[in-house]
Amino acid sequence: MKAAILAALASVAAATGTITIKNNCQGAIGIQIDSQGTQGQSQVIQAGGNMETDLSGAPGQAVKFSTSGDFAHPISFDYTIDYQDGKVYYDVSDVAGHPLDVYVKPADDSCPEVSCPASWPTSVCNQPRTCYPSSNYVIELCESTHSTITKARMRRSVKMAAGML
């Protein structure tokens, strides 16, 4: 039994994906990656810039976004890797603030997107979703160049969260 669990842990750890963050906002966005309550080093992504990080952390992390730079009221992409069932559980948490639009798209089309517009109810964002640790994720902040598609996806996410689809 121990050997099976260790083998599962090793395969999940070896197959972790990446998180690409795209700043489509007009200004710079502060990023801070916290792991198990420990604050990470804050970084800045300039307008139009990108950043990539590994999907890692035992068992999960909070990737926080702030428009003010002080992270007093961030919105965050939270995830937990469950090594026993080989899945990632993720959501967008806006309980501390909702300063900008956040759109999360897993590369695996079988995994659900998260659309969290700044002006919409928080219940849209906080619904947990599941995917696989090997999947890559793209997080777009603010309106993208594909804003019509993004808005349609956001409306669909709201309907899904409300049980209308």
Automatic annotation (TrEMBL):
Name this protein carries in UniProt: Antigenic thaumatin-like protein
Superkingdom of this protein's organism: Eukaryota
UniProt entry keywords in alphabetical sequence: Signal
Signal sequence residues: 1-15
Pfam families membership: Bys1 (PF04681)
